[in-house]
Structure formats: C-alpha cells, structure tokens
Amino acid sequence: MTCAGITGMTLCRAMLRRTDRRLIVKLDRATNDAFAWLYENYDVRNNANHGNHFYYYALYSLERAAELANVAQIHGYDWYFDGATELLHLQTKNGSWSLNNNVTDTCFALLFLKKTVAPAITR
C-alpha cells in the first residue's frame, strides 16, 4: 500500500504543478517518507510484512510508484533488474506466474515486466 500511496501522491503532484506550493511541499515530504519506508523494507522476493500474500500486486505497485516518481534505484538497488530476475525464477514451465493457480498473478507479473522505458533518476 505504500507504493499505491506514492503513486497517488505523484499523480496529484503532477496535476498541481505550481498552483499550491504549501501542498506540493507536503506531498513531497510524504512521498519522501514513503520512499524512506521502502528503503528500510526493500525486498523484491516478498511482499513486505506479508510474505507471498499479494506478492505480484506488490511488485507491480513498486513498478508504478518508482516509474511515476522517476526512481531508478531504491537504496542502491536496481528495483527493476531485481524484480525481473525474481520473476524469471518464479515463472512456471507453461509461462505463467501463479502462487495460487490464479491468472491475476500472471497479469501483475506481466504488468511489472512491461515497464515503461522513460528515463529515470536515482533518488
């Protein structure tokens, strides 16, 4: 949910542009705090504090948050390389990804892998 929050705040900030400087400062502080939490809990092998529960959704949420915030690395780690490598290890012989025989897992894995190619900066 931290990644979903970062995504929402990043989208809000983009819409505000320079209209309300105080609100932008608050959004930036909250986004930085959320990334600080990610730095402390960075793990592409598990959904932080939840193990494998909603794992593929969490990985896709990480992709969206980092891409929209233009973040290439989290705490010195290339989040996309790490996540893609982990997904390659988890892919089943039939090409899908599923911890619970659920097509949704495969959808989120593919959404992560289709990452946009816009340039990103390191935070």
Description:
This protein is mostly helical and 123 residues long. The protein has one domain (2-113). Helices cover 59% and strands 3% of the residues. It has 5 helices and 2 strands, in the order αααββαα. A two-stranded antiparallel sheet has the order 1-2. Helix 1 (2-16) packs antiparallel against helix 2. The longest helix has 21 residues, at 21-41.
Distance between the ends: 20 Å
Order of helices and strands: HHHEEHH
- Compute the number of structural domains: 1
Fraction in helix: 55-70%
Radius of gyration: 15 Å
Query: Number of DSSP helices?
Result: 5
Strand residue content: under 5%
Largest sheet: 2 strands, antiparallel
Name the average pLDDT: 83
Principal-axis shape equals: elongated
Give the SSE layout:
Elements: H1 2-16, H2 21-41, H3 55-68, E1 73-74, E2 77-78, H4 79-90, H5 103-113
Antiparallel strand pairs: 1-2
Helix pairs in contact: 1-2, 1-3, 3-5
